[in-house]
Amino acid sequence: MLENHPDAELHDLPAQGLPVGQLADVLAPSLFGAHRLVVVTGVHEAAGALVEALTGYTKDPDPDLTLVIVHSGGKRNEALVKAFTAAGAAVDDCPRISSVGDRIGFVRNEVRSVGGRITPDAASALVEAIGADLRQLSSAATQLVSDFGGTVDADAVARFHRGQAEVTGFTVAERVLVGDRQGSLEMLRWALQRGVAHVLIADAIADGVRTAARVSSVRSSNPGDLARTLKMPPWKVKRAQSQARGWSIDGLQQAIGVAAELNADVKGAAASADYALERAIRRIVTIRRETGRGVRG
To answer: Which family does it belong to (predicted)?
Structure first.
């Protein structure tokens, strides 16, 4: 779909309960000019106002944006699919995957598609751990091959699942600071699913950005000197030095502003704290890429 835009900015939105204003915000022209992929899932559950907004978009689509809607079948909101088809949208019919055996087969295919292989017990363990969410199964399959090499066994799945269960706000912040957009968004989803509070994730991101800025503002690169000057533990200085690589001072100052906005958003200023976190992560990673010192995230 996006072979010509490997760095496309992804927005994944469930239609049920999605405010029209939030959709409009995502579909608005990007300030950074990057191509965007917007996926609206479950449009068969979309409210009437959202259906109208999506239908209206087909009349004047943005050439720098790819919009995908996912409909589970049936008559409800079928007219929306017809409107997209009439506007020239491609239709990809996907067979329903409902049984455990189907999901195990799906995992095997996903692993194979990225050049790996997974043992039968590992595929079963992964489906048991994650359940029926195909997006998470696909993401986990890809990550397992990346983390553990060509062959994935049950032990690798167990270690992967333990690691995901330990995700915290600081894990999310670490991926954000090093410019790993996909990894940070994945960690964010895992953290939210495990009940990590929005405000804790926002605080961790803000702390990471501020600490990287403080370390970068001091001329010395000696961790001991920095620890004494900044009154920080040496381990925290070393971590901040690693995370600050690729950042400019101007970029970190902009990121601090984004983190401050995020703090207000997760405390009630935004309609959706989940969306506020995702948007802030994308903005910070983009700032690093656009203003960094010769390093692309």
So the answer is: Belongs to the DNA polymerase HolA subunit family.
Q: Are 164 and 191 in contact (CB under 8 A)?
A: no
Q: Judge whether 104 lies within some domain.
A: yes
Residue 82: its H or E element: helix 78-86
Sign of CA dihedral 272, 273, 274, 277: positive
Q: Are 237 and 227 in contact (CB under 8 A)?
A: yes
CA 75, distance to chain mean position in Å, is 31
For residue 117, what are the β-bridge partners? 151
Total domains in the chain come to: 3
Residue 297 domain-assigned (yes or no): no
State the maximum Cα–Cα separation within the chain, in Å, rounded to a whole number.
67
Is 236 among the domain residues? yes
Which three-class secondary structure state does DSSP give residue 77? coil
Looking only at the bridges linking them, the beta strands covering 117-118 and 151-152 are parallel
Q: Which of 119, 142, 163 is the last residue of a domain?
A: 163
pLDDT digits (tens, 9 = 90+) for 147-157: 887 889 998 88
SS3 of 40, please? strand
Q: Are 265 and 273 in contact (CB under 8 A)?
A: yes
Nearest C-alpha neighbor of 130 from the set 98, 96, 174, 161:
161
* Cα angle, residue 148 at apex, residues 143 and 150 outer, rounded to 5°: 95
Confidence band of 295 (pLDDT split at 50, 70, 90)? very low
Question: What is residue 250's three-state secondary structure?
Answer: helix
For residues 27 and 113, membership in a common domain is answered with no
Range of the domain at 114: 100-163
Beta strands 9-14 and 36-41: pairing type?
parallel
